[in-house]
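Input record (one chain):
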Amino acid sequence: MELHVRGRNVPVTDALAVHAEKRMHKIERVLGPFAETAEIEVELAVEHNPSISKSQIAEVTVRTKGPVIRVREADSDMYAAIDLAAHRIERAAQRLRGRRKDHHGPGIEAVASTSAEIAALDHVGKDATDAIEPPPPIRIVRMKRFEMPSLTPEDAAVRLDLIDHSFFVFRNEGSGEVSVIYRRRDGDFGLIEGT
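The corresponding structure, as predicted from the sequence alone:
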């Protein structure tokens, strides 16, 4: 298992690095067969907005031969944020391992993937009376390319749970079309299919 701890806008002290490493090594036993080739990246950051009380952020990404697991936790203390993220990663790894045993048997072939993350800035709508000034252009501020796995919608829902995002883009195994699965406010999933 390969482990990297780095800081974004914050220096990573030896004590923080040791704490993160200690917490992440507990995941190794939970990952089981995925642990051998797993790569874990812990990114620590501080939100510099005084109105945000939980400004210490720990984002953990686990890359394996199987799905990618990603969580982001925030707390007022960096050690607590690391602990929360480690706990959520452990639970997600247990779900992944349980799903592999219960639903797929030993012959599953897992495909490494990441979530599509494309964020666009929203612009404030202008009043009809304020038609002189054109609205600001929409800017795409982040773009990622990724391998599009061929999955069933149920498997895509499991992947969505593992990466802790609001949507997951995949190629529908049944239709071959690009589809998006997303979590609804009621906790269920929604599916958008291409035609």
